Amino acid sequence: MTLLTGLDYASVLVFALTGALAASRSQLDVVGFIFIACLTAVGGGTLRDAILNREVFWVADPVVLAVATLAAVLVFFTAHRLESRYRALLWFDAFALAVAVPAGVAVALAEGKGWPVVLVMGMITGCMGGLMRDVVCNEVPLVLKQGELYVTCAFAGALGAVGAGHAGLETGVALLICAALVFTLRAGSIAFGWRLPVYKSQPPSSGAPKR
Amino acid sequence: MTLLTGLDYASVLVFALTGALAASRSQLDVVGFIFIACLTAVGGGTLRDAILNREVFWVADPVVLAVATLAAVLVFFTAHRLESRYRALLWFDAFALAVAVPAGVAVALAEGKGWPVVLVMGMITGCMGGLMRDVVCNEVPLVLKQGELYVTCAFAGALGAVGAGHAGLETGVALLICAALVFTLRAGSIAFGWRLPVYKSQPPSSGAPKR
Amino acid sequence: MTLLTGLDYASVLVFALTGALAASRSQLDVVGFIFIACLTAVGGGTLRDAILNREVFWVADPVVLAVATLAAVLVFFTAHRLESRYRALLWFDAFALAVAVPAGVAVALAEGKGWPVVLVMGMITGCMGGLMRDVVCNEVPLVLKQGELYVTCAFAGALGAVGAGHAGLETGVALLICAALVFTLRAGSIAFGWRLPVYKSQPPSSGAPKR
C-alpha cells in the first residue's frame, strides 16, 4: 500500500509541475495555475479509479491536492528563470509518465485484474492527465506529436511490468522495470529522436480540412 | 445478454476503424493508431457504464480491446488504398453510430431505466466516442458540422426504440428499428444533404472571436 | 434535500442557456442546441457525482433534462433578439457559476466530506460544465481567459462556504455567502476588469508553437 501511495504522490507532484508550466504558457493567474496543475496531476488517476470503481484517490487522501497546489505556486514564482519552459515541460512530463504508468499498473494489479486491463490502466494513468492538460490549454497533445514516442513508451513500460510479473519477479521489481522502460524510451525519443515509422499518407486527399 | 454483447462488439469494431482513420489523418505511428482506435471504440460505452454505475464493459470483457487493436493495425497497413480517407471515416462513423445507439439503448433498458435515461444513454453511447476522437485529433467534431444531421440521427433512433417498446414490440425489434432509423437519417444526410434548419444569426456580432 | 435539488435545477437551467448560446454561435440546428445545452447543464454535476460515487443526479431525476431541453428550444427561437449573444453568454455563465458552486459544495457537505474535497467539488461543479461546452464548441475556455477572474471566483466562493461552516453558520447561510461571493467577484471581473496579476513571461521562447 505504501508503494502505491508513494507512486501516486510522485506522479501528482511532477504532473502538477507540467500543468503549471502549461499554465505559464497560457499566462494565467495563480489560481489558474493551481487549476491546471490539479487537473493534470489527478486527471489520469481519477479516470483510472472511476473505471475500476475504486474510491477516487484524492477523495480518499486530499493531501495530494495540497502537493499539486504547492507545485503550482512554486512554478508561478520561478518559471521565468527557466531558459525554455517548453523544454522543461517536456522533460518533467517524461518523468511524470515514468512514474504514473507504474502507478496505474500497480493499482490494477492490486485489484486483481487480468493483464489486458493492467496494460490499459498503465496507459490511462500515464497519458490521460497530460492529454487533458493539452486539450484544455490548447497545446498540441503530446500523444499526437508526429515522430515521437509517447503512448508507445507507456505501452512498452506496462508490457514490461506484465512480463516481469509473469516471469515471477516481485511486484516492486516489475514496477521498477516499468518505470525504467518508460523513461528510457521517452528520453531517447526527446534527446535522440527515437521513433517508430509513422503512417505514410498520399498527397493531401480531397477530405475535409482539419480545424 | 448475447444481443447486448454483440452490439457492443460491432460498435467497438466500426468505431475503432474510424479512430484509426482519424489517426491516419494525424499521421501517427502504429501505437498511436491503437490508442485513438481504443479511445473512440470504448469512449461512449465507458461513459455510459460509469454514469449507470455498471462495471465498465471492457473491464468485464477485455476481448473488445483486442478487437479495437486489430482494427487499428489493419487500417495502419491498408488505409493508403482508400481513395478518400475522410469519406471512409464518415461512412464507417455512420455505421458505428447506427450500432452504438441501440447498444446504449439496450443497456439502459436492461438496467430498467425510464425512457428519458434510455434516450440519453443511446445518444451518449453513440456520440461521445466519436466526439472524444475528434477533440483529441483536432478534427471539427461531427456533432458540430453545420447543416448535417448527426445528434439528430441518434436522437431519432433512440426515440424510435422507446416508441416501439411502448407499442409493445419486442426489444430486439425495437433495437432493429433504432439502428435502421439512425443509419437511414445519417446516410441521407451524407449522401443527399438532408438537414434541419440551422440557427440563423445576424451578421457577426461584436462578441469575442472563437479560437 | 430540497435546497440541493433547487440549486441543481437552477444551475441546470442557466448553464443550459449558456450552452444554447454557444450552440447559436456555432450555428447548429435545434437538436444540436439541445445536445450542447444538456452537456453544459449536467457536465459538472455528472463529474461530481461520478467522483463521489453517488447516483448521477439526472439519472435519479430526469426532469432536469427536460429543463435543459426547454431552455435550448427557447434560445433557438429567441437568441436573434439579443444584441450581443457573447455578452449574454458571459452574464448567464456568471449566474450559473454562482449557483453551481454552492450546488457542488452542498452535495459534498451532505456526503460528509472534509473541507478540501468540499472546495474541489464546488470548483468542479461550477467550472467543468462550461469547460466542456467551450472545448466542444471550440471557444476559448472561459477558465483560460487572461486577465479575468473565473476559477478564482469559484475558489473564493467555495472557500467562503467552508469558512462560514467552520464559523458555525447554518448550511443555507453558508451557501448564500458562497453564491454572493462567486457572483460579486465574477461580475466585478466582467464589468470592472477586476483581476489577479497574471504570470509574466519573458519574450516568446524557442518552445513549440501552440496549436
Textual characterization of the structure:
Three copies of one chain form a homotrimer. The first copy, chain A, is mainly alpha-helical. The first copy, chain A, is built from eight helices and no strands. The first copy, chain A, is globular and about 50 Å long. The B-C interface holds B 50-53, 113-114, 116-117, 120, 123, 127, 131, 135, 138, 141, 143-144, 146-147, 149-152, 155, 195-202, 205-208, 210-211 and C 23-35, 38, 46, 50, 53, 55-56, 58-59, 62, 65-66, 76, 79-80, 83-87, 89, 135-140, 211.
Helix and strand layout, with pairings?
The structure is a homotrimer of 211-residue chains.
Chain A: H1 2-25, H2 30-51, H3 57-60, H4 63-78, H5 85-110, H6 115-136, H7 151-166, H8 171-192
Q: Report the span from N to C terminus of chain A.
A: 45 Å
Give the overall pLDDT of chain A as a whole number.
Answer: 88
**pLDDT < 50 runs, ≥5 residues of chain A:** none
Beta-strand content estimate of chain A: under 5%
Query: What string, H for helix and E for strand, traces the elements of chain A in order?
Result: HHHHHHHH
Sheet with the most strands, sense and barrel status of chain A: none
Which oligomeric state applies? homotrimer
Q: Nearest-angstrom radius of gyration of chain A?
A: 17 Å
Number of strands of chain A: 0
Largest interface: A-C, 40 and 38 residues
Q: Helical element count of chain A?
A: 8
Q: How much helicity do the residues of chain A have?
A: over 70%
Envelope shape of chain A: globular
Structural class by helix and strand composition of chain A: mainly alpha
